[in-house]
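Shipment paperwork, digital attachment
Item: protein structure file
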Amino acid sequence: MLELTAIVVSMALIAGAAILSTGFDVKNVKLNSENVWILQKGTGANLASRFGGVNTVVNELTSFNAVTDPSALIQSTNASLLFSGANSKYVNISSATPTDFTEDSEDAIGLDSSVKSIEVGTDVASLIGSDGRLLIATASETGFQKPSAVAMPTGVERFDATAVTSLDKVLAFSAGSKKVFEYDPVTQRFSEAAESLSGDLSGPFQLASIRDRWALLDQG
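Attachment content:
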């Protein structure tokens, strides 16, 4: 049963788990984690895209590697995912031996379509495909595996945003039904209860899980 208190907000984008950087200046990295990843998206003909590991204790770049056409970098306690090709594929970044992520990377996990919403929990990752399907990936010793599509709840045609709770339950918002659903990756079922929203919603949307509450950001 979904027992989360709803908060609907319309304001500046909530900071997510992704760390994006226009360069490798790590002096302003203020995170609790001792090791984080940063992404530098190349602009111009002579600047390549790269990603690197940062030790925030000593404020030093510990590694950097090339990446082709990066689109997002998402990290959690147990894993870090680097997406490319407009979020159409990703790799699990190895903290011990990070490697370049190029068109020829054999460890890249291809998706059936690009994804527009990505959230990572401890052992579960949830994604919303461009077709509105909810995709779930579970973690293994080598990172998050290729996600699988979840059967849609009755009356729902597409989802628009997702989040993962501290208990690795997946939240999914449908603008069409104006409801937030909870999905249990263990039982592979949606909760029978869903929280309804009222009022005008235009999107795009971002969903966040905050302790025992959730927050929906309407960026319209």
